[in-house]
Write a structure and sequence with these properties.
- Helix content is 30%, strand content 29%.
- By secondary structure, it is an alpha/beta fold.
- It folds into two domains: 3-223, Rossmann fold (3-Layer(aba) Sandwich), CATH 3.40.50.300; 228-292.
- The strands form three sheets. Strands 6-7-8-3-9-10 form a six-stranded mixed β-sheet, with helices on both faces. A four-stranded antiparallel β-sheet has the order 2-1-4-5, with helices on one face. A four-stranded antiparallel β-sheet has the order 12-13-11-14.
- The model is unreliable at 306-313 (pLDDT under 50).
Amino acid sequence: MLIDANHLKLTLGGRSILSDVSLHLEAGQIYGLLGPNGAGKSTTIAILLGLYPSESGTLALFDKPIDKGSTVDTRGLRQRIGVMPEHAGFYDWMTASCYLTWYAGFYGGMQQPLPELLERVDLDDARNRPIGQFSRGMQQRLGLARALLHGPELLILDEPTNGLDPRGRREIHDLLLELAQQRQVGILLCTHLLDDVDRLCTNIGIIDQGRSVLEGPLIELLGQQQVGRRFRLRMETLPKNQTDLPSGVSLLGQEGGWWHFIVHADNKSSLAAVWEALLKHDWRYSEIHAEGGGLEELYLRLTSAARPVREAA
């Protein structure tokens, strides 16, 4: 197992940052680490990288225990890890080629020729441009190249697709899937983009207020939690009794001109039948938009990120 973390705890400045966080990642998996801002995701990553010691619990990397009394060469272990932080901190005056060549010196060189590495992240045409001229998306690509240059067995990526256009996001997705499926690289993906998690991740862990609230294979968790699908509808007319709804459908609230509903997972009707049933209950709509799949509903249910929609009148 690449990461075996159990019941991690950390207090800083008298304040509890992590109270009980567990995380398990094997080779070839893409693990989505989810949680609201301030939940403890970055602190968890810092503990994995040895920047903070956990006060309690256990941690092993590559099946090697990491603790205060360990004789394991932790520096050697962490050289098997590639890291892409959210804020990369490049030197603007350096070119991409010079920067990656310089950075590779910390790892004893690159595992593949520089032109191939730059081509993999679609920066081959910008190799000789100063990094200060790079767009946000180009800097994201450079950060990923930096994380990959020494051929890591474990990648830890914080918001890797921020600033990328849809084509760029798809290209990064395809690269990460290739690394996991064909090269058996384990990838820990910290992101707020649930679409990325839906497409990429085999496993997820959700942290809220410094505690792990759910962890496991994504498909199994969605099935176990019986989450539904969220929709927003623009109404033309409303029923007199706004609690009169078809079985298996709940009203979440109203926001602007839109009314938000959830179709529960145990509803066996087709969506077409659901919309027809709403009409029969005098909910007459002009537009329907899906708001997200089961993962979004699961995330909102389990975290303090959920903000109640304004109550229906």
